[in-house]
Design goal:
274 residues; mainly alpha; 0% strand; globular
Length: 274
């Protein structure tokens, strides 16, 4: 074996070792976090939390609002992601600049501190026409959904844009040369190929909505048996000094999140292999 080959193989082994070490370190950190919750929670504490009507109500509300927010996010993110992915090829400099500005605006919910999002929503509903509906939105269940949607949709948009960017535009152009209009090309060519991205966007937006805390706390408050969701339940239990209950609710959130993730993988697996 030549010295150059030996050095190359040694360098490859070192590179692979670094990759494995970094991956293993982060995986172990995640497992350690879950293990810390498991070993710190007693069976009695978990049973007590589950027996609480307030916690069960918060669980049901969390599942309902995060699912609605995820569905809305996918519905909104799909046309936005498609437009942003296809608009990059515009010949007009003004159009490209406008899309660049829109792209920057779409990232604002991602980079803003969560509490700022909640405060901004609260202030928005002081001005018309939003003020006209504030009585039915602010500090009510719709506020929970809107707070979750505002942040989750931004992540769904990023996912859908990346999805459509991977679908060759030429296929839609061929469909249009065969007589289809642009809408028909989208529904029959682009959207069917984006089904994996749709599932990913739904999963990401649901997970983000399910764990949203800051905007929900500010915009919807944390009234028990009314607007309390699981993240705010953890906060309320910690504020009350009830660490066992907070840990039990945290484990409940982990279990639900893992279950949803596994279900999404099982649903998407046949489609991925098709």
């Amino acid at each position: 074996m030549k010295p150059f080959d030996r050095r190359a193989r040694s360098s490859d082994r070192l590179f692979s070792g670094v990759l494995l070490a970094v991956t293993a370190g982060y995986v172990l950190l995640i497992l350690a976090l879950i293990a810390a919750d498991l070993f710190s929670t007693t069976r009695g504490g978990f049973a007590e939390a589950w027996a609480s009507a307030e916690i069960r109500h918060a669980l049901g509300l969390s599942l309902t609002t995060s699912t609605i927010a995820a569905v809305l996010s996918v519905w909104v993110a799909t046309p936005i992601g498609y437009l942003m992915s296809r608009g990059d090829g515009s010949d007009s400099r003004a159009s490209r600049r406008l899309l660049a500005l829109v792209d920057a605006v779409l990232d604002i919910p991602i980079v803003l501190p969560p509490l700022v999002v909640g405060v901004s929503l609260l202030l928005l509903f002081r001005f018309p026409p939003f003020a006209w509906a504030s009585e039915w939105v602010v500090y009510e269940v719709p506020a929970v959904i809107l707070a979750q949607f505002t942040v989750a949709c931004a992540f769904a948009v990023r996912t859908m844009r990346a999805t459509f960017e991977q679908i060759p535009h030429r296929q839609e152009q061929v469909a249009m040369t065969l007589g289809a209009n642009r809408a028909a090309a989208f529904w029959t060519v682009a959207l069917p190929q984006a089904r994996t991205g749709l599932l990913t966007a739904a999963t990401v937006s649901w997970a983000r909505a399910f764990g949203e805390f800051g905007p929900v706390l500010v915009f919807a408050s944390s009234t028990r048996m009314r607007t309390e969701v699981l993240p705010t339940s953890v906060y309320l239990e910690l504020q009350a000094g009830n660490l066992p209950a907070a840990l039990a609710v945290s484990l409940m959130m982990i279990a639900v999140s893992v279950l949803v993730l596994v279900l999404m993988r099982l649903i998407g697996q046949p489609r991925l292999s098709a």
